[in-house]
Please model this.
Amino acid sequence: MARERTTGTRRLAVALIATAAALGALLPATAQAAPSAPDAPATAHAPATTVDVCGRAAPGFARCLAQARTDVHGGTGLRGPAARHASDGDLPDGLGPADLRSAYRLPADGGQDQTVAIVDAGGYPAAEADLAVYRATYGLPPCTTADGCFRQVGQDGQSTDQLPDVGWGMEIALDLDMVSAACPSCRILLVGADSALDADLAASVDTAVALGATEVSNSYGITEYHGIAAHAADYAHPGVAILASSGDSGYTIPSAPAVYPSVIAVGGTSLTRSADPRGWSETAWARAGSGCSAWVDKPAWQTDENCPGRMTADVSAVADPLTGPAVYYSARSGGGGGHLAPAALDPGWTIVGGTSAASPFLAGVIGLAGNPGRYPDASYFYAHAADLNDVVGGANGPDCGGDYQCNAVPGYDGPTGNGTPRGITAF
Model:
């Protein structure tokens, strides 16, 4: 009876939050819509120089969580020392692999026996070519189909030739680049779901694991709802680390798959250079997703006091597109497959963020450390929080009364979880 009262209280609380959001009184306007209506792009409070990579998602479909800069146009092709022309000798704007290794104290070697999978919707024929430009520009070793490092398959594990373009091309490019930046020696498996339907994406996670993935990153989300447990088992594979972006709508109702207890929910930070001994400073990114679940019970290893359900996020990394990584994307994407209006983005070098950047990056960090078996869930991060950078400062919403659920405070908090990598000790 006590548990029934607790669960009823939680659901009532979230229902009240959702109602207040509709009235514009409690949740920020970036909140994703409930599954019974199309998900709205998280554009409120966004700088004029950023845009959602994916357009609105139809009911039952997930939205990718990448945010792209519209004021950065770095041209196409190789840059830096690998450039064909002296005029292209400068590296692209945005953080490169060396910056990210410096900020998070990552070793140069590791992950040779790991396969990091990224699950996305639809096909992107330029994926391998774009990856080659990114890696050559930054002096990373090649990762190709021919050398066995890169593999691209569809939801059924077979060819992607018939997959539609559903507007996730830049998301795919971002995912590939972030895995490469974190773990240049990891193999990469790209699994393209038949569509952005939640069932197709969940089935694609199973495919990734069946094909030998040791880490799986999911840079998408759909607002939690009664019935989300139907796909929870697809994201639970002991021995394989499953990660998902926490969202780009700030403090709000959590999204699946990040809210599942078997998934590492990845929040986001703003990362800038600093004069302190670390050389870098981080605060909570204003749009990093966090929230208290109404439908998923609190895991035993999560002990924050003010949320009786599963709380997101667990851990974090850079996500703010204003301080984000450089990404190479060579072709415009189309629409369809559940997406109503993907953003029109110029091809070439740009800067892309969102918790879509943080999830594949941390999947690469886990691959670099080489211990995916530690992550049947996120509990390892809670037991080793002292080995992470504790992010203090910044908030992702004004509506939690200064609480840790929407403010980066000492110790655990919603926007940044237990913190960001400080080497690979916590991984």
Notes: The radius of gyration is 19 Å. The chain has a mean pLDDT of 87.
